[in-house]
Amino acid sequence: MTVSPALPAAPKVAVIVVAAGSGSRLGHAEPKAFVLLHMRPLLEHALDSIFDMNEPAQIIVVAPGDRVADARAIAAHAAARHTAARHVTFASALSIVAGGRTRQESVDHGLSALLPSIDVVLVHDAARALTPAALCDQVVAAVRATRHGIIPGLPVVDTIKRVAASGAILGTVDRSELSAVQTPQGFPRAMFEAARTWAAANGRFEALTDDAALVADAGHPVTVIAGHPLAFKITTPEDLERADLILHAATPPPVLLPRIGTGLDVHAFAADDSTELWLAGLFWPGEKGLSGHSDGDVAAHAICDALLGAAGLGDIGSIFGTADPRFSGAHGDVFLIETLRLVRAAGYLVGNVSVQIIGNRPKFSPRRAEAEARLSGILSAPVNLAATTTDALGFTGRGEGIAATATALLYPAPSAAPSAAPGTGQTPDLNWEA
Q1: CATH number assigned to the domain comprising residue 350
Q2: By three-state DSSP, how is residue 387 classified?
Q3: How far apart are CA 256 and CA 359, in angstroms?
Q4: What's the whole-number mean pLDDT along residues 294-316?
Q5: Residue 373 reports pLDDT greater than 50
Q6: What 8-state DSSP symbol labels residue 156?
């Protein structure tokens, strides 16, 4: 079924992507082509290379019969991404067909979907998910230059021994004559189809599982060209881990931009006159305290929310937990120190913070400089504090409590990427120095 726009000119090259294998050695219940690598199926990675070929190609994905719809969705998603990246309508014919009982049957099903214009056919394993597009281009060019079969391969670097069933060494194989072959394997269409017809007629069809071997067995020449280390086949869990490490190393760190966050906190005055007031990191003797699970420091809590919000880490409630007994009566600097650690772990430093305290009491101006110095020292960044009343309006105007708003600016740490990028609900590090 074609799911992408028709080509403006009929393609000359087709790539049959064999993705119908079970992949039992990989240790996953689902077929190998649908196993995730770096959060995307192996099939999608394999298609990336084909979509990046210099010459637009007809792409035929051969999928397990019960996963055709899934393969179609994966292929359509990959095609859409490449179309968007190039800012043009992606010019490839894309077909999804059901595979057969064996690999050779699956390839035959793929061949049945070829467009009349195709003169070069590549057969590629979805399990070779990291194969560079350049290797596909080189195979096409070599097929056209030689007019016969082409397969990529790498020299065998290990010493190879012939070993008996008992384990006894029978001899050493001359590795200079050996090549570890890869895909895509490419052939002139007429040659490939003739070889397959010959193999079927002579009972060789199922005996030769490799496409190049089938073509050579029919008497047609096949040449090996230089392969690529990234075209290795993902067969075992160790192969999958290797591929993941390669992609992880090749993924550039995220580009961090300055970010702004805002915070708001409100606490009522405690009914108990013995509760101490802590505000903006300072103890206020003789003032009525604020109710709350911790010390109720609205300024410190608003700053935490602003910092966490700017870094995309959630809010103070989700990080620390309002019912967590570890934070009962904890002072604002405890939350600020841990919040600063999380922000730095996410790759950011604090630029500055501006706080507005809203309430009738305490009289804040005499201790503004002291509070600014205290908070600035904790955050290693300038903190500006201001205080105002609401002219007897609302909760704070009636003297029932205090509110605070905060705005924080973060900027990327030099040459830093997120080391942990903790999310909401993370258990905080309790090894603090308050």
Answers
A1: 3.30.1330.50
A2: strand
A3: 37
A4: 91
A5: yes
A6: -
Pairwise CA distance, residues 119 & 91, whole Å:
18
**Across residues 323-329, what is the average pLDDT?**
62
Q: Measured between alpha carbons, how far is 75 from 61 in angstroms, rounded to an integer?
A: 8
Are residues 101 and 120 located together in one domain of the fold?
A: yes
Q: Is the pLDDT of residue 394 over 90?
A: no
Q: Are strands 149-155 and 222-226 parallel, antiparallel or unpaired?
A: parallel
Judge if 286 and 234 occupy the same domain.
no
Dmax over Cα atoms in the chain, in whole Å?
Answer: 102
Does any domain span residue 422?
A: no
Q: Tokens 């086949």 identify what position?
A: 233
Per-residue confidence (pLDDT) for residue 3, from 0 to 100: 47
pTM above 0.70, yes or no: no
Mean pLDDT value of segment 245-265? 86
170 and 267 both lie in a single domain: no
C-alpha to C-alpha distances, 125 to 17, 186, 285, nearest whole angstrom:
6, 12, 75
pLDDT at 220 over 70: yes
Closest CA to 125 of 234, 278, 255, 267: 234
- 322 shares a domain with 240: no
Domains of the chain: total? 2
Same domain, 25 and 153: yes
Do 273 and 377 belong together in one domain? yes
Q: Residue 269 gets which letter from DSSP?
A: B
Question: CA-CA distance, 280 to 385, in Å (whole number)?
Answer: 9
Tokens representing 142 are: 């070599």
Q: Are residue 73 and residue 204 in the same domain, yes or no?
A: yes
3-state secondary structure of 139: helix
261-265: average pLDDT:
94
